[in-house]
Amino acid sequence: MHFTDIFIKRPVLASVVSFLILLLGARSLFLLNVREYPEISNAVISVNTPYVGADAELVKGFITTPLEKEIGGVDGIDYLESSSIQGLSSIKAHLQLDYDPYKALTQVTAKVNKVKNELPEASENPIIEVQVGETTASMYLSFFSDVLESNQVTDYLVRVVQPKLQGISGMQSAEVLGARTFAMRIWLEPDQMAAYDLTPTDVARALETNNYLTAVGSTKGKMITINLSATTNIHSEKEFRELVVKEVDGDLIRLGDIANVKLGAENYDVEVSFDGKNATFIGINVLPTANALTVIDRVREVLPEIEEQLPEGLNMAVPYDATKYIEDAIIEVERTLVEALIIVIVVIFLFLGSLRSILIPAVAMPLSLIGAGLFMFALGFSINLLTLLAMVLAIGLVVDDAIIVTENIHRNIEEGHSPFQAAIKGARELSTAIVAMTITLVSVYAPIGFMTGLTGSLFSEFAFTLAGAVLISGIIALTLSPMMCSKILKPSDQNRGGGFTSFLDRQFDILKNIYLKLLKICLNSLPAIVIFSLGVLVSCYFLFSMTKKELAPEEDKGVIFTSATAPPTAVIDQTTLYTDELYNILASFPETDHVFMIAGGGGRGSVSIGNTAFAGMVFTPWSKRERSQMDLQPIVQNKLNSIAGLDVAAFGRPPLPGASSGLPVQFVIRSTEPPSEIKRIADQL
Length: 685
What we know:
By secondary structure, this protein is of the alpha+beta class.
């Protein structure tokens, strides 16, 4: 007895196998993460060491160079990138694709600790951070007010809003951008200090001595215990002004005599704006292993509660949400999947002309696609654009097995066999062919999953999902489809008659006769056919070589980012003069919905860089504009080139994860010559 006979003779067994595939596949699909692309671990470990007051050459020689030598020996590093500027050493270690970032982080930390004692005594401890996945936040929240000061807004966000967001499952960080943390600012007056023979060191020593936090402890009696505290620190502007710095002949010189004391912020070198208004941002960064759509949905659920509790005069907005594009893209692919299923079913009906016959492949197609979810779950895949694309392409493949089984059994019925006998005979005839066809298709697509590099990391899920769907379709074609044919198809004496089926048969007879005539002509003109075939074959090379090549096509993700750099000596006040012009250009386009900007920043610790700016030009929804991001980007760049005081580059989000962001081509000029000479050559290039 042939193995296909078992499922035809025992329809319950065939149904149970199919229901098992349906239940396990459906459950697996519900358990899968939903994301834009497959998870890729592209990580950057940064080591930032502040050395306040030191020039770039000093920072490079005594901090950057020794740290680079040690960090360069860590496993898994693709390349190192470092910069030494006034007061700050910054080293970025870009890891190899999918290398364990925390394993590398442990090694980097050990290497840094090894040379920490060799660094200058006045430098601060190195700050080691790891950034996994996207460098751009998945969402930005903007907080702005015409009533509250920036340091008051920052204080509220740090105490109330940030803890609520950090507690959301899947959240990597809720980073406050443009923060103005409360600090007592003491602006020294050089003339007054010279008159009293004081130096900044004397003032710093007086502050450390007189503004001291101490832990007194507690006292314990026979019955009670009391915790003790000492008010050894000062809080208000008045207390700081009255702080004694020096005594000269019985006269007390107070801090207010030689300095302007004001309660302000730690840092004034960062300016954040939303649609031209000063604001404070919170960047939402999602864990690489988490589902960005789910995490941002949880953030949206918390936002109404946060907005209700905002102090009077403080407003909130969402200037940028990357998940809107992901949601729209996935919905579009899902719609394409449904449309493809409907179109294939209609085409099958037009060829078979029977609702009974069409029911068999119509069941096999969705069952094969759902069953592929079992492979996806077992292999740790996710529902993303590439796995959904695999399912769209699989529709045309998984339906073939069911169609040829149905047609072959239908042919045996027309030869006079009963549906049961025709199913037995037809399944036996095609079982070897279906197994061979299934193995062939799996062997064609599976090797894509074993590719290395970025392409392999991205398309392995695509390849194995497609191969899994084809494998499931082969199982269904040998179990469920023959059984359904034996139960659904009618005997040959009941298939005759007029109607739509007869009309289709007549049309196919006409088509067959035309094809036979054309085939006869071709067979009688073999030399011409051979020459034509060779021409097509040779032209394939030229068509391929002349076709445009790129890693991935550009995608309209609804946002253009700009990175701007002012002259190296520019402070934040000079930079904002130019960024005002940058904002006016970005806001002038009718497609612009919001513009957010972060000027300054870029430093770590107590050092900030005032000559850089980052801006985002968020577009209106796709349905409300005619020009795409790709159409607008060169126009935007051309207008930005007119800003004399800024070097501005406009770019979109990378089309694929793991691809470098920013400009498409970047050069690295290496030399042992002084930096001034390298700069001269770079300007010529």
